[in-house]
Every structure is written in C-alpha cells, then in structure tokens.
Specification:
By secondary structure, the chain is of the alpha+beta class. Helix content is 29%, strand content 24%. The strands form six sheets. It has a seven-stranded mixed β-sheet. A five-stranded parallel β-sheet has the order 7-6-5-11-23, covered by helices on one side. Helix 3 runs parallel beside helix 6 (197-213) and helix 3 runs parallel beside helix 15 (505-520). It is globular. 47% of the residues are buried.
Amino acid sequence: MIRVNQVKLDIFENKKQIIDKLARKLKVNKNDIIDYDIFKESIDARRKKIKFNYSIDVQVKNEEKILKKGNFKRSPNYDYTLGDTALDKSIKPIIVGSGPSGLFNALILAQKGYQPIIIEQGEAVEKRIESIQKFWDEGVLNERSNVQFGEGGAGTFSDGKLTTRIKDPRCRKVLREFIDCGAPDEILYKNKPHIGTDRLRGVIINLRKKIESLGGKFYFNTKVTDLIISENKIKGVVIEGDEELFSSVVVLAIGHSSRELFKKMHSLKVAMESKAFAIGVRIEHPQPMIDENQYGSAMLRGKLGPAEYKLTYQSGSRGVYSFCMCPGGEVVAASSGKGTVVTNGMSYYSRDKENANAAILVTVKPEDYGKESSLDGMYFQQRLEERAFKFGGENYNAPATLLGDYLNNHVSKNFGKIKASYQPGVTFVDFNALLPDFINDSIKEALKYFDQKIKGFARADAVLTGIETRSSSPIRILRDGETFESTNIKGLFPCGEGAGYAGGIMSSAVDGINVAEKIMMMK
C-alpha cells in the first residue's frame, strides 16, 4: 500500500469524500483505488479553521508507476511478530501485578507457549467495581482492591487514554489486542485515542480470558509478601505470608502504589533508587468553556467530541503541567491506604459529564524530600496523603478550594457555578496550608500563565480538589539496560510504571512486551 499524508476534510464534509481527495492527491481515477485504511486521524484547529487531517494507506492500481514518480512512499510495515525463544518451556514465569505491563507481559509469554502465573492482590474487575463503588458511596475502603490495586491496574478507573510519546511498533500490537478484546476500532487511528473506563473494564476481562485460554493462570485476592532469593538469584515468591511459589523468573509489574512490597525489597537489598515524580491538585472547569476555547465554538462538540487540553509551564527549574485531562469526566477517590486521601480523574467513553478535569502537577525532585533512602520519596508522598485526610475531615472527604480563594489565601465557603464532582464529598480548606510552599508557588504561577492559553482557566470559581500524588512512581527498581533483569538479582525483572520504566497504559503495556521478549531469550 501507499502512504498518503495531509488528506484534509472540513468538519462538515462526509468521510465518503476521502476517496475523491485521494484520487486527486494520487492523480488517478477514483475507480483505480482498490481499498484504503485510515492510519491516523487528527484535528487541525489552527486559526480555528478546523479540519480533520488524515494519513491514509491506499491500495491502488499501477502502484509501482505512482511510486516511481517519487511523490509517495510505500506504507511502513507495523506488523508485530513474536521472535524466537530460548527459555525452557517448562519454566512458568511468575508475574506480580495485573496492570497493563503485567497483562501484556503475560499475553506475549502465553502466545509463545509459556504458562505464566499472574498474582494480583486485588480483585478481578467484576468484584473490584463493587469494592470501589462502596468506597465512593460509603467511604468504606478495601485496602487490597481499590482504584490503585486490582485487575487492570489504576488505568482501569481513568479516562482509558491510549496516547503515548514513545515511538515503538509494539504500540500497534497493544492497540490491536485491545480491539480484539472489545475496544472500538477507532483507537487504531485516532490521534488521541481513549477507551473510557466503562468500556475498558470489559476489555480487561476479555484480555484475562484470552490469557487463560492460552495457558496462563490468575490468582486474585492473593498478596505477594516476600521474595525468595538465594545467592543473588530469584527462586520464587511468598504469598499471604506462608505459601511459597517457585520459579526462576519473576516479573515485578507491581504498580506505583505497592508500598509494602517496596519496603520488603528495600530490606532484601534489591537495587532501587529514588526518582523525581509529581504532586499537585485536580482542577475542574465547565466542559463547554474548554470546547469554546479549543474549537472557537462549543457547538462544534457534536462534531468533534469534548475538547481536551495539554498545558506546560516552567517555574524556575521546576516543571508544572496538566496530566490525565478528562473531558466530560469526574474527579474520583483513589486512596489505597487507610487514613489517606488521593485524587484521580476518570471519564466514561461518552465523556458526557458537565465538568472537564485535569491534574495540575509540580515536579518533585529527590532533593525536595531527602536522599538518605530510596524510600524517602514514597514516605514524602504518604505524609502528604495523610495530611490531606486530616484536612478533609478524616472521613475520606477531599480538601477543596475555589481557585480565586486559593490565589488570595482565603478559605472558600460556597461553590460558584462549578460544583466539585468528587465523591464521597469535599471539605473547604486553606490549600496554602495543605501543600508545601514550593508546590503552592509553582501552581499559582502556572495557573496565571495557563489563563493566557485558555481564557477563563484561572476563573475564580474553578474548583481545586486534592491531592494528586500517584501520577508516577517515586521509586525506580534498577535493571540492566540490555537484559532488563534486576542489576543485582538474576531472574528478577522490574517492569512497567511502578518499577519506574513507564507512564500510562500504552507505555506500560509496551514495557511488558519488551520484558517478555527479554525473558524468552534467556538460556
């Protein structure tokens, strides 16, 4: 096929007109076009003259003649193929965690004939939904199964974003597997694809069933409490404090909130280091306001869907940025430990809620919290979450403020036109006393700058809810750059976001695939 770029449609043109535009671009009769696939669709909103912009792979008669002219090139091959294996098929790798990295690590291993064992301390999605809803409705937290822990990982209760900055052919493999498990076909070509929490839950269930059909085995409600290590080699894991499972290959796909296991690894002297991460707040605006700013008219939402944004600012040497922007979404309670408050954002596939929300995060560096231990960042993170719990009223209400009051060092008393979406509820507090000065100062600078980019972003009645602490891991489990094994424990493979090697669903899934490939080449 031939790749044709810059095929543009006005937002009111019908997609059927693509074939006419392709014929003009290629300078052929449209009857010569045999077939075409949309490779990428994006929105060009520059100067508010909004168009859809496509890259399209075309099958056409006289292809060689067109290619010889030099104006077009053959479409790249993005097919993913599983390579050769060297690892003995009798070895059953143990995978700790069933987030995106763990699931795709297990899938690849299973597709090559291995029988991975996946151990997850949380519940399968069906039961996990019930536990999370009970927390949101009644404030009853299940510490082992919540927004952070359980099948599918933290991303299952998010917007289900599939965007990534990495350029890797494995991304197409991930998207195709998601589609095979029930995700919409559009994720393969949308510039900013998302599945939505509602549809992603079903996809995860089907992905589990696929792995099981290939020989994989899942243990839910099962907590890894220790690692079995001898002579700097992994021998297996201990579950629930007493049962031992043995394997010479263990994958740590544990997620960024696995504090007890981080502590255990620290005591076992598994090589780890503290790393930069981010802390901030959730901000909510009316979704029509974001649509108006991004599209020029909120009326275009019907054609283009609810608008998104991505904002960055540099406060001295410290970055401030929007993260996990959820159009038409809600702010959710995402605590994983008793006596803590953690926020996150979530959207359904339809993105039809009143508010837009996003995290506004500030980079936190190791020098901000100390360098005595690789766990210092984790403890700093935990102390702020406990502080937020106390400020909120010690009932899992989240601390909240209106943006205008925050900028003027006041405590809010009533909502304006924008109401907080967070459940179980919010408590108005002085955010300036809640967060460290360096975070407050950086956020306030950034909010004023962001208001220049999106009119009304710093409106006085915008709602801030806190705190947001789990965008990435504060720890990196060190691994060899070639083998991906732990630098000091043979057979132990740190993997995904919690290990410090990914950020988000796509990059975590791709890292899981990469680690599986390395495992299968072991001799």
